[in-house]
Amino acid sequence: xxxxxxxxxxxxxxxxxxxxxxxxxxxxxxxxxxxxxxxxxxxxxxxxxxxxxxxxxxxxxxxxxxxxxxxxxxxxxxxxxxxxxxxxxxxxxxxxxxxxxxxxxxxxxxxxxxxxxxxxxxxxxxxxxxxxxxxxxxxxxxxxxxxxxxxxxxxxxxxxxxxxxxxxxxxxxxxxxxxxxxxxxxxxxxxxxxxxxxxxxxxxxxxxxxxxxxxxxxxxxxxxxxxxxxxxxxxxxxxxxxxxxxxxxxxxxxxxxxxxxxxxxxxxxxxx
Length: 272
Known about the structure:
Blueprint: H1 13-21, E1 26-30, H2 34-42, E2 47-50, H3 54-57, H4 69-80, E3 87-91, H5 101-115, E4 119-123, H6 129-137, E5 142-147, H7 153-156, H8 166-182, E6 186-190, H9 194-203, E7 208-211, E8 219-222, H10 224-227, H11 245-261
Parallel strand pairs: 1-2, 1-8, 2-3, 3-4, 4-5, 5-6, 6-7, 7-8
Helix pairs in contact: 2-4, 4-5, 5-6, 8-9
């Protein structure tokens, strides 16, 4: 049961752990640019994720794999300049941490120094344990990501629900406990059965943020462009659209084109 929302002047990784302990749910959304981040932060979202989903929604790629470390730093820098309250977590992109713990640390240091981000997020469990430990030892906060891990899409071959089988579910629980044990401050669980997500959330003391993981976790995250209805082709079960900006923006732009063609814009009051 969620308690009444407290007022926090600035969200930190400790704030999130305290929120879980106090039973307060955590809100998290993506942002990739200054203007949208300023709106999201001003609306009171607790955590802004500069996600590698920018590869899809900003650049039009089919997967998250093509986005580079330099591009993630660019997006994160733009977001950081807009923020007064939210904790900003930045995805380490594919290829920047999987192969070598030293490379992982270099990538994380670049994110923190060049963008001003507050933490990094990494996909995977025991297979990237040494990379996570190396980053944590440098004093950089790390958020884990388990379940459906989009950077591994070609390994899985599908975006279907993960951990439906008993062995995979047991492995996921063990990975979550391991991530807590080595020092991660939170974990995103993506597209797994709600019953399993609840079990994970109850088995660790760090916040579990769900996306397609049911309501019995410690918070929720959505891609901003999806929840605002800007990406109208995407229809997963877990997505709630709070607006239909695709239609609203199309209507507005169509009207603008019509007004320009008809010399209705600008009118006498809109010129000098």
